[in-house]
Design a protein that fits this description.
Elements lengths: L3 H26 L2 E7 L18 H9 L1 E3 L2 E2 L5 H10 L3 H4 L19 H7 L3 E6 L12 E2 L10 E6 L5 E3 L18 E3 L5 E3 L5 E3 L2 E3 L2 E3 L1 E3 L2 E2 L3 H15 L6 E7 L6 E3 L1 H5 L21 H4 L5 H12 L5 H30 L6 E7 L4 E2 L5 E2 L5 H4 E2 L1 E4 L9 E2 L3 E2 L3 H9 L20 H4 L13 E5 L11 E3 L8 E3 L5 H5 L2 E5 L3 E5 L5 E5 L17 H15 L1
Parallel strand pairs: 1-15, 1-17, 2-22, 3-23, 4-5, 4-15, 8-16
Antiparallel strand pairs: 2-21, 3-20, 6-7, 6-11, 9-10, 11-12, 13-14, 17-21, 18-19, 24-27, 25-26, 27-28, 28-29
Helix pairs in contact: 2-10, 6-10
Length: about 550
């Protein structure tokens, strides 16, 4: 006699097994994601044609096999707000996040999920190390690598001054540049051991440090690993040892070429000082701009450039030395990118992993008498962006349409079919960017539904506390603020904006002044066309497009 109950149980069991198998297949079919973030990296890589001496073979080979976005830009050219915007998908001018507020404290962003959290909700395992979000949250990650406090450095330790204060900043860098701060005012090969000169004129070596802990250095071959090396090896190990059935999101954030510019001497040797090719700089190029009418001479980029010239008064020596160190750090970072790419290539995940490489913003290298980030011009806003996706019809050509970091979140949702509410308070919200998948899928390029240009905000900041809202953390940078509450739309209008299309760059400052450059004919942005009447129609059209973003 047939046992009806037993048949029923077997049927249910078989059904559950089939459902489990289907769910497992769905999980396996979802692509893995590897995000490589680089800090302060402008467009100097060979693949992007920014500097003829840049050595970036690993980034270049990724660009050759993926989709290269030649007109990609940051939405705010400073570290913290750029990354906050990238990971939450919210424009800085909408969040009012222009400065140094952690995303989980920021009045608007604290209610928005990062895409790391969304990946976890969709069954992904999350792994991270290095500088990703400017302020990390451990709960976002199933596993975290190297402790954040050693991301920067090592630092030069040059003894104790008469007041008992630790002297930081490399002794080989002349004043007044060295005294800028321990981070931005230092560059040297690791073999150039920091030192002090005693009362008798003797040179006394002091050494390298991570905060109050020593960094062991005997030679380039016998030393502690630098942070970026540790990050690369940690991700490489995870790629080789990962065995779970769930898809993964892995993020690695390299600090180089962020200042201080310290790497082993062999990387400096690749760029002899006497052979350094300086960027094309037009004398007096700053004169037809309005930046200095809006920002004081104490603003970092202006001040840094002047102090570098004072420190090295002869024949642009300071700029050559700084650029040499920057190129050395780029090459060092590129080798770490190679470690990660090689590990992925050797793993079983190479054919089902999306690779995204991006920088948070660029860096101005003396153009327009400016040395830093947070400028409205090309070298500061333009970034490298590469997406390599495991598609049969993936595009391997360069994309010239302007895109930005705000587009990465919706791109990940599109590729990985991520589901779920985007806010923590369950309020309706949408991302500000547009998926870049149509550009990566060669056949769907015409399906791009994004804007005609990229909006970048330059925080004007505040020079005194706003009661109940925040304060300026750095007198040399008015945008360097931490805001603890909401700011009205009027505050948004007081910031400065730059808008980049395929052909044009339009800049609108908070005092109403403007700049206009034809990027196609004038890639160095040497001629401000704002005052030319024949360009009024173009200027007004771009202004309208910019203001549309702000509403």
């Amino acid at each position: 006699m047939i046992n009806i109950h037993r048949i029923f149980i077997l049927t249910i069991g078989l059904g559950l097994l089939i459902i489990h198998k289907i769910n497992a297949q769905e999980k396996e079919s979802k692509p893995n994601v590897l995000l490589i973030m680089v800090d302060d990296l402008n467009d100097y890589q060979g693949a992007f044609g920014g500097h003829p001496q840049a050595l970036t073979p690993n980034i270049d080979r990724l660009a050759e096999t993926g989709t290269r976005f030649n007109n990609a830009h940051t939405n705010v050219p400073v570290c913290s707000p750029s990354r906050n915007s990238l990971f939450t998908g919210i424009y800085p001018h909408k969040s009012r996040d222009f400065g140094w507020t952690p995303h989980f404290k920021q009045h608007v962003l604290k209610n928005h999920k990062t895409f790391i959290e969304l990946f976890k909700e969709n069954g992904y395992k999350t792994f991270g190390t290095g500088k990703l979000l400017h302020t990390n949250v451990r709960s976002y990650w199933d596993a975290w690598g190297v402790p954040e406090h050693i991301n920067y450095g090592p630092h030069a330790y040059s003894g104790i001054d008469k007041k008992g204060k630790r002297l930081m900043g490399h002794s080989s860098v002349p004043e007044p540049f060295r005294s800028i701060n321990v981070v931005d005012g230092s560059f040297a090969p690791l073999s150039d051991t920091p030192s002090i000169i005693d009362s008798l004129g003797n040179r006394i070596e002091t050494g390298w440090t991570y905060g109050k802990k020593a960094y062991r250095y005997k030679s380039d071959e016998d030393r502690d690993l630098m942070p970026d090396e540790q990050h690369a090896l940690w991700i490489a190990e995870k790629l080789s040892s990962y065995k779970a059935n769930a898809p993964f999101f892995m993020g690695v954030g390299f600090v180089n070429p962020h200042t201080p510019l310290y790497v082993p001497k062999k990387y400096f040797d690749k760029f002899p000082l006497e052979e350094i090719v300086l960027p094309k700089i037009k004398e007096g190029d700053i004169n037809d701009t309005n930046y200095r009418n809006v920002y004081p001479d104490t603003e970092m980029g202006i001040s840094y450039f002047q102090k570098l010239k004072q420190a090295y008064p002869n024949d642009n020596e300071g700029l050559k030395r700084f650029l040499q160190a920057y190129l050395a750090c780029i090459n060092f970072m590129d080798e770490q990118v190679g470690v990660v790419l090689d590990a992925l290539e050797k793993s079983k995940f190479k054919d089902n992993t999306i690779i995204i490489l991006a920088s948070d913003h660029g860096w101005q290298m003396g153009e327009k008498d400016y040395l830093y980030k947070n400028s409205p011009w090309e070298r500061s806003t333009r970034i490298p962006l590469i997406i390599k996706a495991p598609l049969k019809k993936a595009s391997k050509k360069a994309v010239t349409h302007p895109v930005s970091l705000i587009d990465i979140f919706p791109t990940l949702i599109d590729f990985c079919q991520l589901e779920g509410v985007l806010t923590k308070n369950n309020k309706t919200s949408k991302l500000d960017g547009v998926s870049l998948k149509p550009f990566v899928q060669k056949s769907n390029t015409k399906n791009w539904k994004g804007p005609k240009g990229v909006l970048t905000v330059l925080g004007a900041g505040i020079n005194k506390p706003i009661e109940g809202l925040g304060y300026s953390r750095n007198k040399g940078a008015l945008w360097h603020i931490e805001i603890n509450g909401d700011l009205d739309q009027d505050f948004v209008k007081k910031q400065n904006y730059t808008y980049r299309t395929k052909k044009w760059r339009y800049i609108l400052y908070n005092d109403g002044s403007e700049e206009l450059y034809n990027i196609v004919k004038d890639p160095n942005e040497w001629l401000n066309l704002e005052s030319y009447r024949k360009y009024n129609r173009i200027k007004n059209k771009l202004k309208t497009q910019l203001l549309t973003h702000l509403n």
